[in-house]
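Task card 7
Instruction: Convert sequence to structure tokens.
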Amino acid sequence: MTEWEKMLAGLPQNDRAPELEARRLVAKRLFRAYNKTTEEDIEAREEIKRQLFRRVGKNVFIEPDFICEMGNNITIGDDVFINFGCIVFDMGEVTIGDNVMFGPRVGIYTTNHAFDPEERVANVVVSKPVHIGDRVWIAADVKILQGVSIGEGSIIGAGSVVTHDIPAGVIAAGVPCKVIRKITARDKWMKDD
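Output:
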């Protein structure tokens, strides 16, 4: 089993294996090229996104400076906005649903280094997926750790560190992130006539 296959299976793998380093290099070249573009470079941005990500939907806008580790472990739905300075360490799969908004400096970290010091020195890591449901808003400076799922329609408050799953339709915040309350009809700013 290759280190890439181990990574995808969530098994311990060597973080510095040459095959993984080669994939990182491709991703770096692509996200650096993307970060040099401007809003006028629509076609160039679309082509880079198609090369960088596993799948990217329609109307996906990513502000510079975007950074990712592998790129091809990221799936992005339609109508997604990713604000300035976001980081996605995608050794584990990252799935971002439709109509998702990221505030500035959001970080997604799918990999954890070994706790045992000898294994850590030997570059042993384990990766777990992160899934973000449709219509989720991730506010500024949120950090999402490996193995987390965030349910449809939820909001993660600014500065939160998400260490466990968050259900659908709630406001959650804090370090560690905890559910504060459900989102209800009282939260509508524009009332139905």
